[in-house]
């Protein structure tokens, strides 16, 4: 035990590019709005569970359990323990855990705070008018899936993997940060208003993607390579501006998706835009689905275009490309009247999100906060690599604050 204490003391006091780990931790914990910060050095006791740095007076230190959600929900596979998360012995804050490329399809270990220990706590960010930031310092070896958040995707989806499931649960999504999803390697923020699906698709689709992408770095690379490979993933949701934004290394950047109707998933968002537009026109319009749920329309503001480009002009007809804050639309104007409107691009970063954060019922069905993976029916391996810190805030951090956080990884 004495050796463990000495090792921990060395990790915490060792200078990192002129700044000690304690100073780096203080930079995070002194940032207003902090809810929890796991640096993977702070534990209940040597060899015990990781705990989070929390504000003074907080009553929950959010100790992390180790689990295998396949065993919990499918009754298959082995149990997980802290031994399944190798330690690096270094990182932005002195330590990091490894999420491995597991080969056993019945083994998907994760670290988590059970719902019973977080429900209605500051970590349980939910409801209308609430904001959130999730920051993860990581080295991505592979994958595009979850890094951290409250994002139980549900096991009620009709897939091959759910045919043998023992415990069927509805989705309990709130907020989470992913390593890309539809844009692998980006910082992808995800927020859900209903815990379940979006735009009549079976998945939740309110998500953003940073402009920049993180590289793939072998998890067993040399210490010198790993020390230079830390990336700072972040997502913010600002309820005042209604924006979900992905940030990689302190930079967000614009990202657009052209021809969203052709995208496997976001074609559903394009249809939600169309159905919302058609529903505003009296009478049943061509292409309108009267059964489409009104609460799933997706119609970002299109009052005033940012830019207008004339594509073609004849004596009585003109085609324009109108770029709005979150959409690009091709408009046909005939004799001064708009006669056609076609969505040609959706903005992916930032993403317009006019809802609150899903608020689970007080019946224990809400999701846990997980690190490294989330509960999902497809049971994919997901992200692999090193995670050297996870922080959650109850407000949307600024670009300057996130850039400062990335400086801790250099």
Characterize this entry briefly:
This protein is an alpha+beta fold.
Quickly count the helices: 7
- CATH topology of the largest domain, which one? Jelly Rolls
CATH architecture of the largest domain: Sandwich
Low-pLDDT residue intervals, each spanning 5 or more residues: 1-16
Highest-level CATH class of the largest domain: Mainly Beta
Structural class: alpha+beta
Beta-strand content: 25-35%
Overall pLDDT: 94
DSSP, total strands: 20
Largest sheet: 7 strands, antiparallel
Please tell me how large the radius of gyration is.
Answer: 23 Å
The helix fraction, in percent, is: 10-25%
Gross morphology is globular
Count of separate structural domains: 2
Query: Would you list the SSEs in sequence order as H and E?
Result: HEEHEEHEEHEEEEHEEEHEEEEEEEH
End-to-end Cα distance: 32 Å
Task: List the keywords.
410 residues; alpha+beta; Jelly Rolls; 7-stranded antiparallel β-sheet; 6-stranded antiparallel β-sheet; 7 helices; 20 strands; disordered N terminus
Structure, described:
The protein is 14% helix and 29% strand. With 410 residues, it is of the alpha+beta class. It has two domains: 2-252 and 351-407, Sandwich (Jelly Rolls), CATH 2.60.120; 260-347, no CATH class. Strands 3, 5, 7, 11, 12, 18 and 20 form a seven-stranded antiparallel sheet that branches. A hairpin with a 3-residue loop joins strand 15 (317-323) and strand 16. The longest helix has 13 residues, at 267-279. Residues 1-16 have low confidence and may be disordered.
